[in-house]
Amino acid sequence: MDPPDLSALLRPRSVAVVGATDRPGSYGDAALCNLAALGFSGEVWGVHPTRREVHGRRCVPTLEDLPAPVDAVVVAIPAAAVPDVIGSAARIGCGAAVVFAAGFAEAGATVLQAELVSAAGAMPVLGPNCDGLVSFHGAALWGDALVPRPAGRVALISQSGNVAVNALAVGRGLSFHTVASVGNQAVLDAATLLSALVEDEQLGSVALFLESDGDGARLADALARAAERGIGVAVLKVGATAAGATAAAAHTGALAGNQRVFRALVEEAGAAWADDVHDLLELAKALAVPPARVHPSGADASGLAILTCSGGDSGLAADEAGRLGLALPPLGTATVERLRSLLPPAATTGNPLDYTAMIWGERERLAGIVEAVAADPAIDQLLLFFDEPAQMEAGLRASWDGVREGLADGAAASGIPALVASTLPDLLQHDSAAAFVARGVPAVGGLRTALACVAALRTSSADRWL
Q: Of 14, 19, 170, 424, which one has the fewest beta carbons inside 10 Å?
């Protein structure tokens, strides 16, 4: 099946904001400001019954008064008037629309939502009850506060607007390609948006936050296409409990089905399952870096090596690896001998390897240790722990930089997939994470999450990338 053409939504050339205003805190004000903030170079119109100009943009009374149909219509007006505006947009040939307003099926107004769907016809509509869409390679059709940030390779598709808003505030080296809040999914659902996004050459991975099962066949097809295209997908779905399912229904009118069956469908299609929003975003960040993906070698004994400067971290990581069924092969005799000249006398050679803090800051030595472990025939993946405080004395900076660069040097020279992680999420700093990613090594926050990412990069690879 051909992917849907959502170019008018994802990369619009012209935009009209219905409900244009300069009233602070309003959707219409935010939409116009966000288009300017992200540097949208296309034509922008305001639509307002009495205003002739808002934020320097020319306004017309109705969509029919536009000189030509626009690609994307941002609808920033109350729910009751939305179906008529959507009908007008479809009649004059606009390409797509975004509806911010709540007060549809999630609030019991199923008839009003049905009228919206009927009015849209074949025109794609995002929402209602959503925050919109930000394409960092296209335009910001977004109704909430937005701070410009560099474009990346991760997309987020979320039924929760707040999850999307919060994700846009995350650092830790996370850079977005697209963020979409799909809301009630009255016309355009997450699976359809996924199937369109995975065709983009600049995309590396997608994080899906879902509140309803949706169309299982459509989602399976989209996940299959993602696998064909080499796009990693991570999924988090609410509704594992009766309370969660009830909350989802109240939020977006979503109907949650059997969680066990849904998870089986997702994992069978090669996607990674996330346990919380933090895991979801870190999984997507890791999956977006192709060099981190493990390609099975066929060797039965191949597995993960963990390197850290702490015995406590070694034990915690080994426990979590065991819980996830991740093999930690013993290092071979030749590797142990090679490490003897690199490790301090207090270090005990093993897997996990605690190289101790006695060599902290020694860039070349740390790089050599990473390379030596990676060269072991039993090792096909590395997990390197690196904790960095947000603030430190100026005199300490050089040693932390030396560790970061030493680990990055060793990982880059190793020839096998590597992942860097902090033991606690707050100990992964944005600039360092971005520096690792620039060298083909994803960096994630939190020990447990790191092992989940390791597992995803291993268990999903055979289906997704070979």
A: 424
Separation CA 227–CA 236 (nearest Å): 18
Domain boundaries, the chain: 1-129, 149-288, 292-465
Q: Dihedral sign, CA of 192, 198, 201, 202?
A: positive
**pLDDT cut 90: percent of the chain above it:** 79
CB 149 within 8 A of CB 260: no
Please report, as a single letter, which amino acid is at residue 436: F
Sign of CA dihedral 210, 215, 220, 223: negative
Domain 292-465 class?
alpha beta
N-terminal to C-terminal alpha carbon distance within the chain = 22
pTM for this model (two decimals):
0.90
Structure confidence at residue 368 as a pLDDT band (50, 70, 90): very high
Q: Could you report the per-residue pLDDT of 218-252, keeping only the tens digit for each?
A: 999 999 999 889 999 999 998 765 554 555 455 44
> How many C-beta atoms lie closer than 10 Å to residue 440's C-beta?
15
User: Beta strand 132-135 with 140-142: parallel, antiparallel or unpaired?
Assistant: antiparallel
| pLDDT score for 215 | 84
pLDDT beyond 50 at 461: no
Residue 278 banded pLDDT, cuts 50, 70, 90: very high
**Cβ–Cβ contacts within 10 Å for residue 409, how many?**
18
Q: What is the mean pLDDT of the chain?
A: 91
Q: Which residues are within 8 A (CB) of 336 and not within 5 positions of it... i.e. 6 or more apart? A: 349
Q: Give the residue from 296, 173, 293 showing the smallest Cα distance to 227.
A: 293
Written as one string, the DSSP assignment of 132-199 is EEEETTS-EEE-S--------SEEEEES-HHHHHHHTT--TT--EEEEEE-TT-SSS-HHHHHHHHTT
What the block records as the tokens of 406 is 């030493």
Can you read off the two tokens belonging to residue 121? 């016809």
User: In the CATH hierarchy, which fold is given to the domain comprising 149-288?
Assistant: Rossmann fold (3.40.50)
> How wide is the angle at C-alpha 262 spanned by C-alphas 256 and 267, nearest 5°?
150
Secondary structure (DSSP) of 406-439: HHHHHHHHH-S-EEEEESSGGG--HHHHHHHHHT
3-class DSSP assignment, residue 378: coil
Overall average pLDDT of the 56-61 stretch = 96
Closest CA to 367 of 414, 431, 432: 414
CATH of 1-129, one of 3.40.1000.10, 3.10.580.10, 3.90.1150.10, 3.40.50.720: 3.40.50.720
- Identical fold between 149-288 and 292-465: yes
